[in-house]
Hints:
By secondary structure, the chain is of the alpha+beta class. It contains nine helices and nine strands. The protein has a four-stranded antiparallel sheet. The chain has a three-stranded antiparallel sheet with strand order 3-4-7. 27% of the residues are buried.
Amino acid sequence: MRAIALAMALLGLSGANASAAGSADQCRDILIYAAHNRYQSLQTGNIKSDLKTAMCNGTSSSDGSSSSIGAGLSVLGYGSGTFDKGKQNLKTAQSQICSSGESQLSNDQFDQVAKDVVDADSVAAWTKCIGSGGLVGSIERNGDIVIFHLQWIGLNSIDSTELVNTDIDGVNCQTIWPDGTHVGSLKLQKQCHGDAKKAITVTFQAKNDSLTLKSPGASDLSPTPPDNRTRREKCLDGMSDECVLYADDIRKDCDAKYSQATLAGASQWRICAQTTVNVSDYVNSLTAKDEACKNNISAMQCKTAEEFSLGRRKVLTGEGAMVSAPLGGAPFNPTPGFLPPH
Length: 342
């Protein structure tokens, strides 16, 4: 009898572990839909691979000063945004994830990253699901289409419940589940038509538990924060197009300050406008670096081009002396330029 009791206890423990694992997968759906809602180009069926691609295809400078990762992620169909690489959690995750040979994130990696990029209300719903179960659900958004997901995950040995009241705001859904609807382990889904720009709040009150779900609208997400960098700062961050405009600004400023009609004025103008040549040298070095590092053909050539570009940047910022181009010809030549005398 003691052996039978022990066997039954082990079976019960095994069942509890299996249930917990199942709950983790069910709870993960909350983060999956929230990430898709935030970044519409992350498809729910491929979200682990899509998210790795978004994280690892971003650009960063050689000194690690880049402020974001990922690019071109459509936010609720309105505009685009990037992940905030400034968060230390994401910095660590990106380093580990992008150096691995896996084609997609593991479940644990996805949970770690998703919690840092989705809205706080979705994280709270996920935390409730993981922590206690009970009435759990999520909101899935595809443009103006809204899909509510609702189910019951065992709580206090209760395997199902019934809805007694539902309050919904932000979407007109006359067909939402009526009072008395049975909610069990099988997920319920209800599609409604809303407005991608509007936030949604829904509260489900059941006999044994309650659940409030929130989803921000596109207008609440601020997909692209204002870029307050000056044209010079953008140029120094490696934006070649901004460098061209920056050089044009310098030349116009020199034209306004100094007249080339006199020998003294022309001399002052050349000194002033020398920066435009330094900008041009820097842009050329960026082009050379991109070409040398393309497709990772030669690590040494890429490293040399990066160091050369960094040297040209230091000349532009006044942190270093004029540097000579490394030997080997194109794409590193020509050597740094100087304005010819007038």
